[in-house]
TrEMBL record:
Designated name of the protein: S8 family serine peptidase
Gene Ontology MF terms in the entry: serine-type endopeptidase activity
Protease keyword on record: yes
GO biological process, one term: proteolysis
Keywords: Hydrolase, Membrane, Protease, Serine protease, Signal, Transmembrane, Transmembrane helix
PROSITE patterns assigned: SUBTILASE
Native source species: Streptomyces finlayi
Pfam families for the chain: Peptidase_S8 (PF00082)
Keyword Transmembrane helix included in the entry's annotation: yes
Length: 407
């Protein structure tokens, strides 16, 4: 039989070897590709941003049979439970330029206008994004969007398979301007600047719309690291709020396309929302998801500050963002923070406006707990190892104090 001291020593050594490898798995960040729910192992189907362009037949994204069991990290990050006590975006129309939106989708019924082909969302991505902007969550109210009191004007910026088109985006921008939308969210990113696109954006801003756009398109499945940094449109147009996606820790996902001029980052991985068919949920991610969250925040701001100009709304969203390499959207702070008069600061050096810094996400808390667990566990293991070592030496000396001469 193994002596108790050796058994204790062996157990401590095993714990020391296993502990560092066990904890990172708990604290790992969600990948950009929709993945399993890390806490309970529940899996939800992924929501694609486009369908296979090479397929002979168009097969629409099927209905999900699964429902999320809890609020995801992104809604905790944006502090939506507290935000909704101050603003739900009531009275604001958000024009969503994406793959279309199903007007009868769960959590959106009665609040979506979808002219023409925009009511046919075969991909499902536009409906997913609409839920993040203005969904009520249906029978899962904690999965409501940022501005569940807002209305959605669904417009197509893609074909039925989800392929972006400059001509469609220009047409959609003009329709949104004519409809007097308070916020316009362009969730597709185009590789080339177009005079018609520039004109449509400028016209929308003159009409009083806050224009928000994806900083980049979704990266290609291969070779993303070889794509040079460039500006995408209409995010690169003057006055447009350019939005990128981020992980719970605040970093952009691996493989993100490089670009300049990003104004804010918002949650864009492992995000839960509904689709156009059925009442189940999906997991999605990417820059369009982050753009939808920023658009919802803009709607919440416009509802509380209806007299603010588009420039004022953009300034509010950026000035109250959590400070980082890329400022991180803080929807609650954007609505509730009192900002100074920008005109009063002309020619005067003033400190930056205060930012509401707070605990931001369950994922961050989980990471902190995991780190604490590592430190405490490591200390415990070292104590066990030292005790085992000391007991072994004492036993070898016949339990005499150290330094006692043997006879």
């Amino acid at each position: 039989m193994m002596p108790p001291v050796r058994l204790l020593y062996g157990a401590g050594l095993a714990a020391a070897l296993l502990l560092p490898t066990a904890v990172p798995a708990q604290a790992a960040l969600p990948s950009r590709v929709p993945a399993a729910d890390g806490k309970k192992g529940q899996e939800l189907p992924g929501m694609p941003s486009a369908l296979d362009p090479e397929a002979d037949d168009v097969v629409c994204t099927p209905a999900s049979r699964e429902k999320a069991e809890k609020q995801d990290w992104s809604r905790q990050r944006l502090d939506l439970d507290r935000l909704h006590r101050h603003s739900t975006g009531e009275g604001v129309t958000v024009a969503l330029i994406a793959t279309g939106v199903d007007p009868g989708a769960a959590g959106l019924k009665g609040r979506v206008t979808a002219p023409g082909a925009a009511g046919d969302d075969c991909v499902g991505h536009g409906t997913f994004l609409a839920g993040l902007i203005a969904g009520t969550g249906g029978d899962s109210p904690r999965l409501a969007g940022v501005a569940p009191g807002a209305r959605i004007l669904a417009l197509r910026g893609t074909d039925r398979r989800g392929r972006a088109s400059s001509a469609l985006v220009v047409e959609a921008l003009r329709e949104a301007t004519e409809a007097k939308a308070g916020v316009i969210a362009v969730t597709v990113a185009l590789p080339r600047q177009d005079p018609a696109l520039s004109g449509a954006v400028a016209e929308a801003r003159r009409a009083g719309a806050v224009v928000i756009a994806a900083a980049t398109p979704d990266p290609p499945s291969r070779g993303a690291d070889e794509v040079p940094s460039r500006t995408y449109w209409p995010a690169g147009e003057p006055g447009v709020l350019s939005v990128a996606d981020m992980l719970p820790g605040g970093a952009r996902p691996d493989g993100s396309l490089p670009t300049e001029g990003i104004d804010v980052a918002a949650p864009g991985a492992g995000v839960v929302s509904g689709g156009p068919r059925g009442e189940g949920h999906y997991l999605g991610g990417g820059v369009p998801v982050a753009t939808a969250y920023a658009a919802g925040a803009a709607a919440a701001v416009r509802a509380v500050h209806p007299d603010d100009s588009p420039e004022d709304v953009v300034r509010r969203l950026t000035a109250t963002a959590y400070p980082a390499d890329i400022p991180q959207l803080d929807a609650y702070a954007a609505v509730t923070t009192v900002l100074g008069d920008p005109a009063a600061s002309v020619g005067v050096e003033r400190p930056a406006e205060p930012v509401n810094v707070r605990e931001t996400s369950a994922a961050d808390r989980a990471t902190g707990r995991a780190t604490l667990f590592v430190l405490l566990g490591s200390a415990g293991v070292l104590a066990v190892l030292w005790a085992g070592f000391a007991l072994s030496r004492a036993r070898a000396r016949g339990w005499r104090p150290a330094g006692t001469a043997t006879e």
